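Lab notebook page, bench 4
Experiment: in silico fold of construct C2
Operator: M.H.
Input chain length: 186 residues
Purpose: comparison with the prior construct
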Amino acid sequence: MSARRRWPVISVVALAAAGLVLISPVLVAQAPKPDFSGVWELDSGKSDDAEVAIRDALGLTGGRGERQAERQALSSRLHYLARAAETMEIEQTDKDIKLFNSEDDVRIHYIDGQKHPRQSPSGEEMTTVTEWRESFLALTTEGPNIGKVTETLGMEGLQLVHIVRIQNDAFEEDLVIRVYYDRADR
């Protein structure tokens, strides 16, 4: 094949490759997001032991710093949430996600990447940002007493995985709890 005939073929191949590179992020961004809707039951055999993780994060001294009453309140709230995590019901739309625990507590998160004001059960003011990060839904909540709480929801096979990371000065180390759920038979 002469150089004159090869140039159009090479140009077409190069243009096609460049087009795929430019289009592929659009295809990835438009990939369907998982629907977490339904009732989920804790797989305790695969999940982290939340009680142990909370105790480890607070350390043997119950945490660091001068805020013992705050640490005790935080510990009490976290232990309550760990017990209430036996089941989780999720209602999800394109715009929001509602999380219900076994105590019928509900949290509503707007999936728009914007900061939204919230109030804790104890009246603490905080903000939450909820956004998709590829196939994981990330919920980041910050407040003066709770620190920074980052939650991710995603799927591993047929199981829902809920990872909670809490960064707080009351802890000797970040608290990280990984919880696996199976769909409830209904």
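Observations: The chain has two domains: 1-31, 33-183. The helical segments are 3-29, 50-58, 68-83.
Next step: discuss at group meeting.
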